[in-house]
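As a warm-up, study this chain.
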Amino acid sequence: MTIERGEIYLFNLEPIVGSEQRGPARPCIVLSISELNAKLRTVGVVPLTSSSRPLLPLVVSVPSGGLPTSKALCGQLRTLDKRRIVGGALGRLSKDDLLEVERCVRQVYGL
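Now compare it with the structure written out below.
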């Protein structure tokens, strides 16, 4: 399976601990670069939600995330094993939305 940066997949995030994003099938944006995704068994992702309010830089609106109300949880960056993927790609973030997620992740993590 080819996994590209900016694509959206359902991931099984269980088991969780504490305040981690919950969900046996949660949509997530692949943030790790495509070249590494092809070589590693893990991918870096940012979970999506539709229930939070935008709270920059932690939570950013990404209308191309599947729903007009989709938001990226930039403070919940995770590295997941590809075996947690449930099904195929659901879509892809727009270039502008991906740039905004990248900007917010850099700000949250001081990069």
